[in-house]
Amino acid sequence: MTQRPGNMIVEVLVGISIAALVIVSIGNLVDSVNKTDRAAANKNQALAYARESLEVITAIARAQFQCTAGSPGCTCTALFGYTTCWQECPFTVPGCAPTYHLTNSGTWHVVSGAESIGTNPTFSRFLEFTSVSGDTNLKYVTATVGWTEGTRSRTVTQATLLSGWKQ
What we know:
This protein has 167 residues and is of the alpha+beta class. The chain has one domain. The chain is 35% helix and 31% strand. The protein is built from 1 helix and 8 strands. The strands form 3 sheets. The chain has a 4-stranded antiparallel sheet with strand order 5-6-7-8, covered by helices on one side. The longest helix has 59 residues, at 7-65.
């Protein structure tokens, strides 16, 4: 069988086209894997920030909310069998705020508003405290961390229940 003139050029062009498609496909796959990896790392970091907030507030909850019933400045009423109760809002914040965050200037304490942490991306973290209906010795604490990934806003939320103790 004889080769016609120009067949070799067509074969080379087909080969180059197939190679280009394979290279572009591999490039897209690598890009997709990198984006997924970055998204997973951001979510893990956000979960770590949320867990950190809950661990700290669990450790300092009594100092932030607990008062002895009947003492000056105590605005809560202790339940039967308890000598202490938890204030509606943290002692370190004048009045109540919708959200809070933790600061550490030698000791941890609660302040109002959200905080920005980290770079590339910058995370926003805040706490919300909810009193459990009918029990002045329980607080439901929600830690929310948000960040932007490309054009999408992402958030993670962790929560815990804090309780006083019977004395």
